[in-house]
Every structure is written in C-alpha cells, then in structure tokens.
Amino acid sequence: MRSTQKDPFVVVIVGAGPRGTGVLERLLANAAETPPSRPLSVELVDPYPPGGGRVWREEQSPLMWMNATAENVTMFPDETVTCDGPIRPGPSLSEWAAAEGACAEVTHTTFATRQVQSRYLRWVFDRVVAERPQNVSVRVHATRATRVEGGARTRQRVWLEDRDEPLRADVVVLALGHLDAVPCKDQRLLADFADRHALRHLPCAYSADADLSVFRPGEDVLMRGMGAAFIDLMVLLTEGRGGAFAERADGRLRYVPSGREPRLHVGSRRGVPYRSKISYRLVGDPPPLPRFFSAPEVDARLAGRDRIGFRDDLWPLMAKEIAYGYYHELFTAHPGRVALPWQEFSAAYDGLDWDAEPLRALVEASVPSKADRLDFAALDRPLRGLRFPRSADLQDHVREHIRADVDRRSDRRHSADLGAFLALLSVYGQLPLLTCLARLPARSRVTDVDGWWQGFFEYVGSGSPRERTRQLLALAEAGVVRFVGADMWVEPDEERGVYRAGGTSTPDTVEATGLIEARLPDADLRTCTEPLLRSLYRSGEAAEHVLADDDGYAHRTGLLHVSPDDFRVLSRDGVPHPRRFALGPFTNIRRFATFARPRSNALSFRQNDRLAREVLRLLGAPARVSRNDGGRRAGTGLPAKTGPALPAEGRLPVQDVAVVRPMVA
Questions:
Q1: Cα distance between residue 92 and residue 16, in whole Å
Q2: Is a pLDDT exceeding 60 seen at residue 658?
Q3: b or e along 326-359 (b: 16 or more beta carbons within 10 Å of the residue's beta carbon)?
Q4: N or C terminus of the chain with fewer C-beta within 10 Å?
Q5: What is the pLDDT of residues 52-94, one digit of tens each?
Q6: Whether 531 contacts 146, CB under 8 Å
C-alpha cells in the first residue's frame, strides 16, 4: 500500500509498562504543541496490561509491596524538570489515592502494594490517552513483538507473535523494561545437579513469576542474595503460606508459623540485609544540594585531564557530599550533640579535602561522640573483619545488627541518616550527567561505578520498608531464617547429594536440599528470552555495549548499545539506526529509579522528553521549545535539532483508541 499525504505517521512503542507509558506521555504532550506534519498513530505492543506492564501488573500477590512511599512516586513531570517539552503535571501515587477515594488505606507515608501501584499506572495510561491531541490515535496490541525489519530509509516492519501481517512503522521505540534470561553455565550446572539428586533449584527470577510451590515445608533451602528480591521471596514463603506476625508486649513482632514454610539459610557478599527504609522526616532544614558534587562543577574541575580515577577524583567529592548532608542535619537538628555552630563547621568543612587529616580532626573536635560520626567503612561492610567460632554466635550478632538498624531508622535522634540519604540521592542523580566519565578507565567503570558504587547505593538507599525488616527479625528469632554470613559460597556435594554453603563469618557450613537465587536476572542480549532483541543482535542490527581499555581489558556488559545523545539503537558497526530508539534498564542508558520522586528534576522525565522530541523532529514537527532555556536541549548543552521529515511511504489504516487482543478459538 502506498501512502498519501493524508495518511498518518506511525510510531510503534514495544513495551507498555512504566517506561513505555512515560515515553507515550511525553510524545503526546509534545505533539500537542509541536505536531508533526501529518496525523500520528501510536501503536503499543505488550502482552501485559498497559501502564503496569509485566512487573507492575495487578495480578500478583497483595504481599508484594513497593519500597518507596506513596508520596515519593509519580509518573508526571513537574516544574522542576528541565526539558524542552511542555510540562503537564499530575498527581503522585498518594495524591491519586486520596483523590480517587478507592485506596483509603494509602497515605503519604504508605508503602503501597504493587497491586495499588498497578491501578495507579493504568489510571495514568488512560489519562494520557484520553488527553491526546485530536490528530493522534493510540492502539494497544496485547501480544509480543518478535522481530523488527527495515532499513534506514524504509518503513519498519514490526512482527507480532500472533499475527500474519506486521505493523508498519515510521519509528520504533523499544521500552521493554527488565528482561528474563536463559540461565548461565554455572546456573545450568546447579540445575543439572538438582535434577540428578531430586533437589530443588530456582534460578534468578522475578518474584511474582517464581514457582515457589516446589519447596517443601521444613526443607532446608539456601537463598543467595539479601536485597529486595530476597525480601519478596521470604514473605511469599512464610506469610504467603499462612504464617502470621503478632505484636509482642515490647513492641516487636513474633512470627506464628503455619508449619508449611521451609527453613531459609540466607547470605550474600555483605552477609546482612539492605538497610531498612527511614520512617521519619528531617528535623532540620533540607541540606542545600548539590554542594560539592554537581556535574558541571565536577566536569570543570577535571577538565583537561586525559584520565581520571574513581577513588582519587570522584569518590572524595561524592563522599564529601554525602557527609555534608549528614552533618548538615546533625548540626542543625541536634545542636546539643556538637561542639560548634553549623556556620563555623561548614565554613571549615568547605575548604578541606575528604579523608585528609585536617578534615578528620575537624570532625573529631566538632562531634564529640564517635557514634555520631559518619563511618563509610563500617556502614558498607558491617561484618568485615569479624569471625565467629560458631554459627550460633553469628546468628546472635546479625539479629542484633538488624534490631539496631530497625530502631535507628525509626528514631528521629538519628535523623542525620536521612540527611545522608538525601545527599546520596543527589550524588546518584548527578553521576550519570558527568561528561568526564568517558575518561574513566573501563575497568574502573565496571568495578567501581557499576560494581561497588551501585551496590553501595542499593544497600543504603534501596532497602525494604521498616515493617518488612521487623518481619525478617521475627523470622530470624523464630529460626525460620538463619544467616550464612558474608562472602557466601555455594557448592554441590556429589557424594552426599546436597547443596553445601558457607562464608567467611564462621567456619560452620550448612547443607540444604533447595537453592534459590534471590536476585533479578541480569540483562544480557546474548541470553535474554526476548525474541526481538535476540534477532536484532544475531543479525548485527543491534550491538552489545562493551567497555574497553587501551591495555586490552574488555568487559561485555550484556546491555543494548544505544547512543547516549538521542537513544538511537547502534548496529554492530556502531551505526545508529535513524528509525529505531531504545530506553530502559536493558540498555546502556539505565541509571534512573524505576519511578520518579516529585520535584526532583528526575532523569527519566528528561530522557523521555528528549526521545519524544527527537521522534517528532524525525516526523517533521517544528523544533519549538516550550521551556525558557535558551532553545537548548536539556541535559546535553546541544541546540534543538531541526531536520527533514521522513519520506512518504505506505501506511496502515488505524482505528481510534482500542486494545487489540489475539483471537481465541
């Protein structure tokens, strides 16, 4: 079919979860002010319901909670977002719950269930579609995209799992979210061992999709990983099997077993769970951030250097920023525990290098109690250097560690921790904006940034709600959960036909007949189960992002390689495809929270806006700038692009807003 000038442009978005919905919102908001030269049809492809997608679909256990409070979750950009497109504000999760009246149990500080979040996401999607411009239609295909074909100068053909004819598109946006993966060699060996000895093994999986029914009541089960996935699985295997928690007279929880739960032996590199979420607000004023780690200032400071180092150049500024947030709250909110006024301490602190003797002396003189001083090493690895003669001693120590963490994160006397957390968020948001990261050796990006720093951030900032940590403590006191220790290892014991595990915290080991990898699957183009991505990778039309140094060091990230400037998919030869874009955790552009915090100039909003405007520019929309920023693209320093519209080609007729589902016999 050949097109006419009246036929619409077609944009296919593969993935209709939170990221796809966010891209759609920016696409429609920009199209209202800078419409393309023809009507626009947006086709979304996702086998799961739009808005929530797979991970946030409503059909999952009500025991699955979010790990952010409802007031800190939004899908709408606000006036703090520096982007060229128009701002169309909307309610946060808590504001939506209050306005809708259907979720009376959700307050500002509630950790809502994922089912509630799913309903919010569907509401967002429906509102975005309902407010679309008159010249735009939206259609959802409840199926899976299997491959994409088409050259740089021809329309794209998007093949669907249950259709004989493809969707034909002028532009394709991949917003697939998190991916499943075929188990790696080590995981296959463990699974084969389980098959030979009639054991049970669960590889890395998303909690809502994991089949936990194979694990037997009273069975000893190893769990490798102590982050968010571990907490989800722990709850499903205990409370999800009929167990219950009761309040004790001292305010702590007691676990009432159902008799159907297995006995869980858990460990990780740190050997302790992520830090519990803080359940109070700042006592003092918010720290003015960024202070020492703003991307423009750091880039200017390190300009002219051929190479930079993480530990020498970046971490000292990052640590000083986090400590600044901590001490700002300590001094302004708890002046009785410090020896100097904040203004005097701050003036001295500003001029000193991190971790140098003068700064250490300043802190020691100004903060009399060692317990009130920020200690990154103790915070990061609380079991480092500790060796317990028996596993029982380790259990006592880790339980006390968790007990102290629960108490501290709910005690406003320790509100300096919240100051540090806010500074940690600021640093995390500034780091991906650094242009000087390109001069950081690849080895350091892998081990320091993607390795240590990412792990430290998640450990300190992405823990579970306090109630979940209280439940973990109750399970540990009941003997349902036991701790293996730091640097956990697992090996198959062929002679005894069991899994055996241990760590560096105690010489004792444990034997088990079940093993759960309590981690999410790693995104990897080579092993992911998405047929569309695998076909692009095999054909060379998509490439894996590889980090390499001049000395021959190379690291395969497993991530889809896209241009950091405009998110176009790069081929194996490094050539960007003009009609294909991708954004999300499966790409090398992945440093953002799943959901944005209101009034935080969230990176995800800026990314979505840049992508949407680039798509519309490609479709012939004028490069009009809605925000007063001098006509420059937010976050890049580049002028707004202008360029020719796509050539006219055949286009499929589309219906108005609809959901297209596969035929059922």
A1: 19
A2: no
A3: bbbbbbbbbeeebebebeebbeebeebebeeeeb
A4: C
A5: 999 999 999 999 999 999 999 999 999 999 999 999 999 999 9
A6: yes
Give 169's strand partners. Answer: 156
Helix (H) or strand (E) holding 148: strand 145-149
Residue 259 token pair: 């008799």
Q: What share of the chain is helix, strand, coil (3-state, %, to 5)?
A: 35, 15, 50
Q: Which of 595, 521, 592, 544 is nearest to 120 (CA)?
A: 595
- From residue 233, alpha-carbon distances to 404, 443, 469, 484, 577 in Å are 23, 33, 13, 17, 40
State residue 33 phi and psi, 5-degree precision.
-105, -30
What pLDDT, on a 0 to 100 scale, did the predictor assign at position 100?
A: 75
Q: Which residue has the tokens 């990780």?
A: 268
Q: What is the DSSP code (8-state) at residue 447?
A: I
CB neighbours of residue 301 within 10 Å = 12
Question: Quick one: tokens of 542?
Answer: 């998509």
By the 8 A CB rule, do 466 and 483 touch?
no
Note whether 294 and 430 are within 8 A (CB): yes
DSSP string, 342-382: HHHHHHHHHTS-TTSHHHHHHHHHH---GGGS--HHHHH-T
Which residues, 6+ apart, have CB-to-CB distance to 531 below 8 Å? Answer: 144, 146, 147
The C-alpha torsion from 582 through 587 and 588 to 594, rounded to 10°, is: 100
The pLDDT value recorded for residue 646 is 52
356 — pLDDT class (breaks 50, 70, 90): very high
CB of 570 closer than 8 Å to CB of 544? no
Evaluate whether 107 touches 625 at the Cβ level (below 8 Å): no
Full DSSP string of 156-181: EEEEETT-SS-EEESEEEE---S--B
Give all strands (DSSP E) within 474-572, no chain letters. 481-485, 489-493, 498-502, 510-512, 514-517, 544-548, 554-560, 568-570
Q: What is residue 609's three-state secondary structure?
A: helix
Residue 164 structure tokens: 């004989």
Scan for tokens 């929309």, then name that residue.
621
